[in-house]
Amino acid sequence: MNPEPLSTLLEENQHGVVIPCWIQPKSSRDSIVGIQGDAIKISITAPPVDGKANACLCKYLAKIAGVSKSSVRLISGQASRRKLFQIDNISKQQLLDKLLAHSR
Asked: What pairing do the DSSP bridges indicate for beta strands 11-12 and 16-24?
């Protein structure tokens, strides 16, 4: 994945980074697929039922970023494929490096 378009999607703030995500639920594995419009496309194994996909994505983002699950929170898109997550305690460059390392 090209780091330049990915970098423009991430927004750093005083707490960490806001990351826009486009979710593909019920996939064979959790993975970063690429860029979908103005969001990072991520496939996850969980179905979009009872918040399972959101919880799975939160856990996956925490794993990629190397932060605790409590440092990752959904800020918009509870029932949508397009979501915004806040990841605390990480810089934009650190998150960019980790996303690139985990992309297909």
From this structure: antiparallel
Domains of the chain: 3-102 (3.30.1200.10)
What backbone torsions phi and psi does residue 20 show, to the nearest 5 degrees? Answer: -85, 135
Spatial contact of 55 and 70, defined as CB atoms under 8 Å apart: no
Contact 44, 59 (CB under 8 A): no
Encoded amino acid at 38, one letter? D
Write down the residue that tokens 């486009």 correspond to: 22
Structural element, H or E, at residue 56:
helix 52-65
What does pTM read for this prediction? 0.92
CA angle 22, 25, 30 (to 5 degrees): 85
Residue 22, pLDDT > 70, answer: yes
